[in-house]
């Protein structure tokens, strides 16, 4: 999924038009193997995380890089932690709206 709003951009290649465009020009790909961390189930116990991961029919995805680096999506800038914990799977939709 790629969400574009104005001149901003959030994609599996990074956040920001310049970052995404430069990675596209280099022929880079945002598709990779998933890890349990990608599920963002940190409030669940490890056993539940692993069980959920094992139930996935595919373990390959285009994941938006999250974090605090300039090219990463930092959900804390947009949503407080209380709201984020309730909306981890719709965070991009809420922010773009």
Largest sheet: 3 strands, antiparallel
Order of helices and strands: EEEHEHEHH
Helix content: 25-40%
By DSSP, the count of extended strands is 5
Strand content: 15-25%
| Number of discrete domains | 1
Distance between the termini: 15 Å
Which parts are unreliable, with pLDDT below 50 for 5 consecutive residues or more? none
Order of the strands making up the biggest sheet: 1-2-3
User: With helices defined by DSSP (H or I, 4 residues minimum), what is the helix count?
Assistant: 4
Average residue pLDDT? 83
Query: Shape from CA axes?
Result: globular
Task: Spell out the key features of this protein.
single chain, 97 residues, alpha+beta, three-stranded antiparallel β-sheet, two-stranded antiparallel ribbon, 15% strand, Beta-ketoacyl synthase-like N-terminal domain-containing protein, Ketoacyl_synth_N, Thiolase-like, signal, acyltransferase activity
What does it look like?
With 97 residues, the protein is an alpha+beta fold. It has one domain. The protein has four helices and five strands; from the N terminus they run βββαβαβαα. A three-stranded antiparallel β-sheet has the order 1-2-3. It has a two-stranded antiparallel sheet with strand order 4-5. β2 and β3 form a beta hairpin. It starts with a strand and ends with a helix. Keywords: Signal.
SSE layout and pairing:
Layout lengths: L2 E3 L2 E4 L2 E2 L1 H9 L5 E3 L12 H10 L4 E3 L18 H6 L4 H6 L1
Antiparallel strand pairs: 1-2, 2-3, 4-5
GO molecular function: acyltransferase activity
InterPro entries: Ketoacyl_synth_N, Thiolase-like
Keywords: Signal
């Amino acid at each position: 999924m790629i969400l574009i709003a104005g001149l901003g951009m959030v994609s599996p290649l990074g956040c920001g038009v310049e970052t995404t465009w430069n990675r596209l020009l280099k022929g880079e790909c945002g598709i990779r193997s998933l890890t349990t961390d990608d599920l963002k189930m940190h409030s669940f116990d490890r056993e539940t995380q692993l069980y959920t991961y094992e139930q996935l029919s595919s373990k390959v995805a285009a994941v938006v890089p999250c974090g605090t680096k300039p090219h990463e999506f930092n959900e804390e800038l947009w949503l407080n932690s209380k709201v984020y914990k309730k909306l981890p799977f719709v965070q991009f939709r809420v922010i773009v709206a």
